[in-house]
Design a protein that fits this description.
single chain; alpha+beta; 434 Repressor (Amino-terminal Domain); Jelly Rolls; 3-stranded antiparallel beta sheet; 24% helix
Length: 271
């Protein structure tokens, strides 16, 4: 019992000797408040409601001049005044102190990208590099693609997918097949099309064609739905063609980090 008492006394003594935090100066406190951007948050709420300073003053009982100084950070509100403002916009007090979400900004360096070949074939007709692979839950997939001249033994393999697609030819000649249309594209040409129509790309020159491709996998509400029927076997050599199609988005990472298989369906996802 005596031993336990001794230990307790020693612990208490150690705590009493612990260093006490230095007094927080006014400048540090002001900086802490400034980092919360309370004034700018109030202004965003007010402008979102198309409300003027005078009108907000009528609702809160605060003068327009005080509110103006508050929004510009020249004065700091009391909790009582902040509560009045929060109730006008149906917000909790915590809204003004929560960490603000950071806007998305991701740089992909050329040296960090990975060059991948067309999958499912021994002799690829194109290579691609994802330009957005580090962005989680992305709504579009940008790719840098290089199409090499096709050999006589290689097949043209159309494919379909929901959404839209944009292609810009950076270099060379590229043939775009979209349904019954065939267009010859040259350097500087661009095309935007409905990707639910069968389409394919063919290098039309003797040197590789380079293009920037952006795919949107999610179907837009305004996009007309199409009843797709299987393409004839004379056009497509096998049923596994969509997985080997000349669109990087089909065989590469999907919009949410998923991978599309040979049937065009999502078969896996990176968490």
């Amino acid at each position: 019992m005596q031993k336990g008492t001794t230990v307790a006394k020693e612990s208490a003594a150690a705590l009493s000797e612990a260093p006490v935090p230095a007094e927080i100066d006014s400048e540090t406190a002001e900086q802490f408040i400034a980092e919360k951007h309370i004034g700018s948050r109030i202004k965003r709420l007010r402008l979102k409601k198309s409300m003027g300073l005078v009108e907000l003053g009528r609702h809160t009982g605060l003068s327009a001049s005080f509110l103006s100084q508050l929004e510009t950070g020249r004065v700091v509100p009391t909790l009582r005044n902040l509560a009045r403002i929060a109730m006008v916009f149906s917000k909790d007090l915590s809204y003004f102190f929560e960490t603000e979400p950071q806007s998305l900004f991701r740089v992909h360096r050329r040296k960090e990208r990975v060059r991948l070949p067309q999958t499912g074939v021994d002799d690829p007709t194109y290579f691609f590099e994802s330009l957005g692979y580090m962005v989680p839950d992305r709504l579009m997939d940008p790719y840098f693609a290089e199409f090499v001249p096709m050999k006589k033994t290689q097949d043209v393999r159309p494919h379909v997918h929901p959404g839209y697609e944009f292609l810009y030819v950076l270099q060379g000649e590229l043939e775009i097949r979209h349904g019954d249309q065939v267009s010859q594209m040259e350097t500087g040409d661009a095309v935007y099309f409905d990707a639910s129509t069968p389409h394919a790309y063919i290098c039309a020159g003797k040197t590789p064609a380079i293009a920037l491709i952006v795919t949107m996998h999610q179907q837009s509400a305004m996009q007309p739905s199409m009843q797709m029927r299987p393409l004839q076997s004379s056009t497509l050599p096998s049923r596994t063609i969509p997985g080997n199609a000349l669109r990087p988005g089909v065989i590469g990472p999907g919009a949410n980090g998923s991978t599309l298989g040979s049937s065009g369906n999502i078969v896996g996802s990176r968490s």
